[in-house]
Amino acid sequence: MSDSYLPYAAEAEQSLSPSELQVLQRQFEREGTQVRIQTKFNYAWGLIKSAQKHDQTRGVALMHNIYEEHEERKRECLYYLGIGYYKMGEYANARVYTERLLALEPGNKQAESLRQLVDEKVARDGLIGLAMSGGAVALLGIAAAFMFKKSK
Question: Cα–Cα–Cα angle for 94, 100, 116, nearest 5°?
Answer without folding.
Answer: 50
